[in-house]
């Protein structure tokens, strides 16, 4: 094994290319976006990831990694293209189909073909293998076809690509072994071989597990609000049980994994997945729940100023994809009853369709600060300054991340029992 062709140079494909290049392989990274290739061949990158600029610079300079707009002959092909959902919540595997078709002219007997993109169960057998068969090759004998899902955490991708356990699901046992060997050359974590469909399902169940458990915490929030219980205390105490781990509630679930992957299972087994579907519904209902609490808090004010803090789907990142915080902000901005200011130190103007404010402008004259992301900046707020600048020093913290501030009245998502309408 000498040469690897990686198709799709995003958050997964680019670091993967760089890691194989660093290990001494000749790597050609392919992307349909010519800007990505142009930058790469200058040793530069188009995404943010810790340590990646330096690594890419090094492996491009020593000739181990280069970019190209179309694939080339190689010993192994790794496909890492997007798999979004359609408007009807079914998986869009078109990018995987196109990437597979793109490698066909260069595919030779004995090559390893790995799909790293997250895919619905049976995609390797029902979608990828038939494309190779139509090309005149036997996908179960002539090539080694496998799904190897990714489970890296943005910000730690270079570490986790090497240290995480890898699940390698081949369409045959020999395909699992051959694809496993590709990873064994660079991975220090375990490389576990299994069948393709098991690998597909295991990746989807990891994210579905988290989605379902967050839904349980969010349901607890609604139950607690009705019964007059503090859900945060309930979670803390219940989690003292050695085998209980209730997740944290919040304004919903976002991102391109947790909020998307469960639909890949639902699509394939709609009658058998009521729990997963209900969990999606509960998590999707949270933005409305948050807005209804904002309505309750501000119902006695004429034109309340709400300062939205945080737009990303989790803390300390700049990603607003599928973000419930963004949905809440949009809804409030579009409602003329509210005067809305929006502050997020991690998000740039071009990422959103409305105006972003500075911290000072956001809080100036505000009746309510609505915290929607647990950025570190929000864990160190100056209560005195907030109280001085705000019209009424009230906060609704949907992430339960802001410490107690003696100058502010803070309502937390799991403790809305004593919620009272704000008076000017
Ligand atoms: N980013 C993560 O943290 C993460 C984690 C686990 C799994 N995944 C999965 O990995 C896959 C890739 O995700 P990503 O975040 O790297 O996506 P991304 O959007 O960052 O990058 C995908 C790249 O593929 C390119 N592309 C699209 N079609 C192509 C084609 N036919 N040929 C060549 N290039 C093509 C795009 O131009 C883009 O640069 C997805 O299935 C995703 O669900 C991502």
From TrEMBL:
Domain of life: Bacteria
Record keywords, A-Z: NAD, Oxidoreductase
InterPro entries membership: 6-PGluconate_DH-like_C_sf (IPR008927), NAD(P)-bd_dom_sf (IPR036291), UDP-Glc/GDP-Man (IPR017476), UDP-Glc/GDP-Man_DH_C (IPR014027), UDP-Glc/GDP-Man_DH_C_sf (IPR036220), UDP-Glc/GDP-Man_DH_dimer (IPR014026), UDP-Glc/GDP-Man_DH_N (IPR001732), UDP_ManNAc/GlcNAc_DH (IPR028359)
SMART domains from the UniProt entry: UDPG_MGDP_dh_C
Pfam families: UDPG_MGDP_dh, UDPG_MGDP_dh_C, UDPG_MGDP_dh_N
Mitochondrion is among the record's keywords: no
MF terms in GO: NAD binding; oxidoreductase activity, acting on the CH-CH group of donors, NAD or NADP as acceptor; oxidoreductase activity, acting on the CH-OH group of donors, NAD or NADP as acceptor
PANTHER family referenced in this protein's UniProt entry, alphabetically: UDP-N-ACETYL-D-MANNOSAMINE DEHYDROGENASE
The protein's name in its UniProt record: UDP-N-acetyl-D-mannosaminuronic acid dehydrogenase
Organism: Falsibacillus pallidus
């Amino acid at each position: 094994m000498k040469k690897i062709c990686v198709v799709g140079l995003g958050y997964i494909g680019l670091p993967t290319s760089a890691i194989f290049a660093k290990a001494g392989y000749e790597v050609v990274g392919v992307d349909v976006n010519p800007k990505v290739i142009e930058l790469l061949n200058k040793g530069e990158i188009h995404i943010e990831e810790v340590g990646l600029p330096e690594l890419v610079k090094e492996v491009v300079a020593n000739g181990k990694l280069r970019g190209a707009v179309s694939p080339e002959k190689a010993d192994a092909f790794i496909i890492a293209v997007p798999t979004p959902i359609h408007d009807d919540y079914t998986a869009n595997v078109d990018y995987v189909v196109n990437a597979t078709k793109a490698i066909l002219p260069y595919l030779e007997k004995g090559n390893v073909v790995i799909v790293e993109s997250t895919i619905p169960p049976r995609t390797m057998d029902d979608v990828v293998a038939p494309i190779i068969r139509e090309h005149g090759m036997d996908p179960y004998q002539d090539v080694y076809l496998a799904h190897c899902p990714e489970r890296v955490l943005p910000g730690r991708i270079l570490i986790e690509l090497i240290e995480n356990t890898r699940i390698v699901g081949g369409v045959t046992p020999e395909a699992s072994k051959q694809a496993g060997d590709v990873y064994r050359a660079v991975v220090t974590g375990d490389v576990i071989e299994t069948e393709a469909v098991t690998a597909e399902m295991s990746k989807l169940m990891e994210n579905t597990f988290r989605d379902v458990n967050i839904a349980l915490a969010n349901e607890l929030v609604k139950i607690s609000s009705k019964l007059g219980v503090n859900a945060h205390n309930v979670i803390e105490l219940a989690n003292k049980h050695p085998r209980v781990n209730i997740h944290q509630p919040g304004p919903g679930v976002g991102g391109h994994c947790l909020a998307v992957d469960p639909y890949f299972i639902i699509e394939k087994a709609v009658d058998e997945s009521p729990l997963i579907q209900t969990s999606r519904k509960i998590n999707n209902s949270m933005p409305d729940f948050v807005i209804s609490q904002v309505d309750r808090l501000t119902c006695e004010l004429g034109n309340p100023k709400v300062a939205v803090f945080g737009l990303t789907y989790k803390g300390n990142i700049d990603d607003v994809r599928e973000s419930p915080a963004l949905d809440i902000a949009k809804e409030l901005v579009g409602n003329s009853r509210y005067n809305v200011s929006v502050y997020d130190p991690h998000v740039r103007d071009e990422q959103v369709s409305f105006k972003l404010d500075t911290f000072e402008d956001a809080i100036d004259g505000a009746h309510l600060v609505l915290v929607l992301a647990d950025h570190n900046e929000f864990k160190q707020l100056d209560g005195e300054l907030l109280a001085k600048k705000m019209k009424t020093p009230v906060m609704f913290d949907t992430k339960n991340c802001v410490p107690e501030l003696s100058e502010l009245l803070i309502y937390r998502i799991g403790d809305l029992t004593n919620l009272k309408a704000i008076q000017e």
